[in-house]
Task: inverse folding
């Protein structure tokens, strides 16, 4: 595949992913961890959380949310970094209102990897890094 | 009889930089110190050494500026790649800079800057034998052009691979997000020494 094909594929995966991810975290939180690899890591405002059990527990304690995404960008990750496992960097920016809290702006980035199954390809989150823009206030 | 089924409203406390290990911390802080000393030097050609031949880079700014009255972001607008708004595949592809020469030429055209390294907060997002992905958040000011002295905030994600010289990092992906700084960020920018805003120590890039 040439770079253009990789870049187009990254955009398709990123657009679809962003719709599904934020809809799921807002409305179907209990199935959110299905989007993560078993070995996925989340760094949430400097707090590291890794593995599905810890992620499930973390998302249960996180207040319900209303995300609004305003910026999405993506890049195909170079194969030398991923040992040829198709991977996309997805970067988002937007605002989130957690129940009982004021609305805040945030930046988030994900590494998505394509898990090739016999009959389909499923994209999963390998890493997730989230930070409020005003995290220190 | 009481039942505790109230939904949570308390957020986990926010913390400073996450490095994972002292080794990674030293490596990434050294990289950032070197990288931004060249980036802010007035000539970014020297960054050629930091990038992989097939590196790619893109920039985005907020769709609507959060405070358009303070400092226009117009210098960045033409390069902003936001696939949520830009649906034209040709334009999307043109805004994704690819190969080392194009990436550095692109960075060289951006306004000249001075970064406040004391403002930096770093998160190591992912690490494998072949990949290091980290996010850097902080503020800088523009030091020339029509927005001279405007303070901006940035959030940047680098993905690097080990270079031939294993102690160094070689960037394969670079994703830069720039916005206007908030009043609070402007107030705290370039104040030495940097205040410690959280229980975790703020990283300092001085040796």
Result:
């Amino acid at each position: 595949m040439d770079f253009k094909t990789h870049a187009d594929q990254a955009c398709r995966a990123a657009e679809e992913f962003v719709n599904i991810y934020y809809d799921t975290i807002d409305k179907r939180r209990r199935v959110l961890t299905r989007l993560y690899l078993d070995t996925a890591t989340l760094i949430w405002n400097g707090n590291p959380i890794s593995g599905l059990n810890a992620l499930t527990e973390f998302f249960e304690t996180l207040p319900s949310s209303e995300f609004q995404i305003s910026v999405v960008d993506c890049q195909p990750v170079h194969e030398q970094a991923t040992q040829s496992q198709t991977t996309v960097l997805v970067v988002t920016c937007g605002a989130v209102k957690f129940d009982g809290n004021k609305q805040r702006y945030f930046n988030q980035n994900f590494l998505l990897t394509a898990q090739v199954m016999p009959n389909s390809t499923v994209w999963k989150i390998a890493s997730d890094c989230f930070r409020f823009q005003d995290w220190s206030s | 009889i009481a039942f505790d089924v109230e939904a949570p409203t308390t957020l986990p406390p926010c913390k400073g930089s996450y490095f994972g290990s002292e080794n990674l911390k030293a490596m990434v802080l050294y990289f950032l110190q070197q990288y931004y000393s060249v980036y802010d030097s007035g000539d970014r050609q020297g960054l050629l050494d930091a990038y992989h031949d097939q590196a790619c880079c893109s920039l985005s700014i907020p769709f609507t500026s959060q405070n358009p009255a303070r400092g226009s972001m117009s210098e960045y607008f033409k390069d902003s790649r936001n696939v949520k708004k830009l649906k034209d595949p040709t334009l999307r592809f043109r805004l994704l800079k690819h190969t080392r020469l194009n990436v550095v030429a692109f960075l060289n055209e951006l306004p000249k800057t001075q970064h406040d390294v004391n403002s930096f907060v770093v998160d190591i997002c992912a690490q494998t034998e072949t990949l290091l992905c980290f996010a850097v958040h902080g503020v800088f000011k523009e030091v020339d052009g029509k927005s001279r002295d405007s303070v901006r905030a940035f959030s940047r994600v680098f993905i690097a691979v080990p270079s031939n010289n294993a102690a160094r990092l070689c960037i394969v992906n670079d994703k830069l997000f720039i916005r206007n700084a908030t009043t609070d960020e402007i107030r705290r920018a370039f104040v030495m020494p940097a205040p410690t805003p959280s229980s975790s120590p703020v990283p300092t890039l001085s040796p």
